[in-house]
């Protein structure tokens, strides 16, 4: 059986939200669990914590993008809804990495991969992604890696 402590935590949080009648939180947790279940059924596997973090990270990015678009369209009510969902999703993610921690990880990944230019960014990101998944915005990590690589 896969290590699914995070899935168990999500299920318990859903039950707590039901008892507390927290409809917004309950709805968001159900969305996350439905996405996890969809992937499990489609791929005929049981997701482990690392893969659930990928799902949470993806859902968070979707909410960020949607909030940005709603903001540009002047729909503050929908921006607030997306932000509320982001807060719930973030509560299941590990603590975010600081800028200094990211710099150290990027430097280590560049040294480990032997990257010498921006063309080697893929190698660096392949090493970084499992370390920072769910703990940092991958776009920002990629930008930091690009800036750290010569030419």
UniProtKB/TrEMBL annotation:
Pfam families assigned to the protein according to its UniProt record, in alphabetical order: YqeY (PF09424)
Signal peptide: none
Record-linked InterPro entries: Asn/Gln_tRNA_amidoTrase-B-like, GatB_Yqey_C_2, YqeY/Aim41, YqeY/Aim41_N
Protein name according to UniProt: GatB/YqeY domain-containing protein
Organism: Balneatrix alpica
Top-level taxonomy: Bacteria, Pseudomonadati, Pseudomonadota, Gammaproteobacteria, Oceanospirillales
